[in-house]
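Known limitations

Structure tokens in this collection are predictions and should be treated as such. Users comparing against experimental data should check residue numbering before alignment. To illustrate the layout, the record for Coproporphyrin III ferrochelatase is reproduced below. The input appears on top and the generated tokens appear beneath it.
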Amino acid sequence: MSGITNGQAVLAASEPALCGPPHVEAPVAYDAILLAGFGGPEGQDDVIPFLRNVTAGRGIPDERLEEVAHHYRHYGGVSPINEHNRQLKAALEAELERRGIDLPVLWGNRNWDPYMKDAVQEAHDRGFRSIIALATSAYSSYSGCRQYREDFAMALDATGLRGELRIDKVRQFFDHPGFVTPFAEGVRDALATFADRGIASSRTRVLFATHSIPTGDALRSGPRDRDFGDEGAYGAQHRAVAEHIMTTLGADVAWKLVYQSRSGPPTQPWLEPDVNDEIAELAQDGVEAVVIVPLGFVSDHMEVLWDLDTEAVQTAESHGMQALRTPTPGIHPAYVAGLVDLVLERVHGTPAAERPAMTGLGPWFDVCRPGCCENARLGFKPAVAGVAP
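Generated tokens:
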């Protein structure tokens, strides 16, 4: 797909991205990197205010929020996600210094301090005018991509800096080798552990887990002019990565993509099967061991600690099954180096044909296509790094 030729521009973009090419193949001189996170509470008093931020505009009363809050309260009201982002920021800075690249790293969150608008204001105050953003989400969906792009636009408006600050965003990196390698290593090691324990491969299963989303949102993920199947680009991307891992490892073990962390009314269809339901069904089939791979997550935040390490592992144990949860990328050297490589693709204007991608779906777009990852409930809001619908 070629760039937009009818004069339609990309909001707050650098000059090479302004007309909306799918891949920007011209160099861009960036001043800084913006690490964009989800955010999380860091104490018991933060939990409900944080959840109000997450659910803003939905009219959910505090009594219902408290039903979710117990996950955080179990860990002292502290989500690990902010500390993980501090570690990732430090690791990125170390990798940039090692390579002799002078790009400061700023950090802003969607739902908790440090907020995105504060990071954008800091960038401007420090004299930066051209920013490349790294969102801590690898896949295409509203919450995983478009909402971050909306966050950047809202931050520019909140600070009054639209027109003064340019923000581009690296491509979705679900199939970049830096992201895939840590998962492949984890699956390899877990399967070896079960083999050492004498568990046959025929009685072992690999479950690739990711956050469930409404089926309607899944269908609207990715560009509108391409059919990705019943689960949209979101499901297709996860399946492609899982298949690549299992094929590359040459593992003679059955695998399945499963979902977790469902919320919302029971009348609304969400992606299935749930990881716990799948484990229970596998137990009925005589499976003795499950490898749980948190494929949809970049770090060990609450959905990993509670929904997988606590609930899914307990489900397996209650059925007499052994379970191993593999690591998330975190600050794995390959992941950190890969994120820097993604930034350098845009710095150097690397041609799309020369960019690494481990599946046939990539390399993904630098500039999101018109209508990508629509939120049907909220409609289209202004968003950077994408062509307006």
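For this record: The radius of gyration is 21 Å. Residues 1-7 have pLDDT under 50 and may be disordered. Please report discrepancies through the issue tracker.
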